[in-house]
Structures are given as structure tokens and as C-alpha cells.
């Protein structure tokens, strides 16, 4: 598999033609597997013998996998996304209450307010350019989820730009020198520790302060490494994936104007757009890792114990066995699009899914209500695809806003 990633759909189609589970060679020459079929992935994600803790990956510890393996940063991460059983339940319980549907709905006015402010900025950027073009990712799709998650965590606004730069480096780390990746990881951890120290000195009504209170109140509940790891997960996953989701939805609607018309005419909803985008062009290509704790047979294919297995989210989204022979077609009226697995399944289902859905739905509704004539400024085929093994989107999204 290419460490630079790129658009995953052609590779997914080739692999899926061979079966719902495929053997692959991961970046760095490490043998692995990917689960591609919707039903197979759903089974695997919820299987009690598919672990997240890298101690179940022998090659990571016995010298088989080199120290500079480009995906080691994902395997070695600490937090609820790499924990199992009681540890996972303990860590998830500390943040879960902040992301319930009821709690997230309380954020709606603030998300709407922030979206409108950013659209003002997007309009100014377009007006100020010589050709009337502005990058929607830079001025809207990125700062909306970044602003919301940073406010939730009590992060000083001056840190936001650097947090994105560092998290983006870590996310695309399979395509840059390992030394640069490790330097970015160290700086990211140091910056998060600085943020935590500020909240410890001046607690507020934010998630970081609540996590610190849990740690300081009961040292067995949350270690310092778990605190930093949980904050890192919230900050990185809390904006990178939603950035890609919004970008992919806008790109899909601009290249499928008939589908946009259905929504603008009230024949489909913005929630339908979000569901179909998650299915058709999800924000995450292949997510590392799960490890069978015993030899495991998934949909007739044996995955040996200790194999690093990728979750093939974009592949499952276009599985014709579930979504029909036209699964490659973007259709906001498609029955069953909400069954997509882009937020995962089972115990590790994305805790931030309600927030991501809210942000994306508001972003699209506000954007196209204000600028119904918004369109891509260059042909879709000329948009530079993200050079990321994990993320699935474009690097930039230049648009013309049209008449309000």
C-alpha cells in the first residue's frame, strides 16, 4: 500500500473484487490485512477477539518491525482508541457525557454563530482576491470544527493554528521522514501538556478541566499519559475528520448539482447529504489498527493472531453487496445510507459522532443557503488529493461563491 495514500476508491475496488478481507503489505514492508466489506467490517469491529492494544501485535515488540516504521506512531498512541475492556470503558466514560446527543444539541447556537462568522470571512477572502476565489478548507471547513473542539477543551485560540499543523503532520506521517514525524509528535504532546497545565492552574467549565479533576481526584482513574493521550485524540480526531467530511460533501454537491437541487428544493435534507457523503466518500480511508488475539476467521478468510488489521471505511461505504450495484453513485435519496460505518461500530464507535454530524449539517445548510451558486473554481479532477494514508479528502478546495 502506498504510504502517500491518495484517493482510495480505485484500490478499494480492486481489493474488494478479490474478497471482503485482503492481505496487504503496509507502508514500511509490514504484512497486514484490511477488512473491506460492509458486513465483514461490521462483524470485525465488534468482535471480542479483535483488540486495539498494540501489546497484541508481537512484531511491534520483537524487532520484526523496525523502530522507524511509519505507522508506529498510530500503534503506540495511548488513549481510549487504543485501549480494551475495562480500561476502554473507564477512559470513554470520562468524555462520553460531553458528547451525548443532548449535550451536543446545546452547542447548536454556538456552532451556528461560528459558522456565520466564518462565512463572513470566506466572503471577504473571495472579495479580496483578484479572481474572486477563496479556499473553503482554509476559511470555513477547518476553523469551524477546530474552533468548536478547542472551545470544548478550553484551548487558548493562539494555539489553534499550530495544533492543526502538528496534527496534520502526524496524520499524514506515512509520507514524511520518521524524524520529522517524531519531532511533530513530541511538540504536539508538549503543547497539549502546556494546555493542560493552563487549565490546571485556572480551571473552567471545559472538558480539559473535567479530565484533570478526574485525574487529580483519583489517581487510579486517569494517568498523566492517558490525560495527554485523551486530549490528543479529542483535538486531532475532533477537527481533522470533520474538516474532511465538510470538504467532501461540498465537493460532492458541486459536482452533482442535481443532488444539491434536491436539498435546496426540500426533497432531501442536509442530514441526508451528510449520511451519503460518509458512505460515498468518507473522511477516513483506512484506520489502524486492530489485532486478532487468536486466529480469526472473518467472512471465510483467516486472519492470523497478531496481524495488524486496517478498517477499510471507504471500501465498506461502496460495497455493492449492501448498497447496490450503483454504490459508486452519489445519491442523497439513497435508502440505507445512514447504515454506513464511517464512525465505526461496536464499543469503539466514535464518541464524537453526534458533534461531527451537527457541525457538518449546520456548515452545509448555512453555506449553501447563503451561497446557493457556490461552485468549484477548478475542475474537480484538478483538485490535489490529500497525501495521507489515513485521511481522505483534498488538500485545498478553491471555490467561487456566486451571488448570495
Please outline what is shown here.
By secondary structure, the protein is of the alpha+beta class. 50% of the residues lie in helices and 10% in strands. The protein has a single domain (9-390), classed as Cytochrome p450.
- The number of helical segments is 17
Which shape, going by the Cα principal axes?
A: globular
Strand fraction band? 5-15%
Classified by CATH, the class is Mainly Alpha
Q: Give me the count of strands.
A: 10
Largest sheet: 5 strands, mixed
Percent range of helical residues: 40-55%
Q: How far is it from the N-terminal to the C-terminal residue, by CA? A: 44 Å
CATH topology: Cytochrome p450
Going by helix content, strand content and strand pairing, the class is: alpha+beta
Instruction: Output mean pLDDT.
Output: 93
CATH architecture: Orthogonal Bundle
What is the CATH homologous superfamily assignment? Cytochrome P450
**How many structural units, i.e. domains?**
1
| Helix/strand order | HEEHEHHHHEHHHHHHHHEEEEHHHEE
Notable traits:
Cytochrome p450; 17 helices; 5-stranded mixed β-sheet; 404 residues; 10 strands; globular; single chain; 50% helix; 3-stranded antiparallel β-sheet; alpha+beta; Cyt_P450_sf
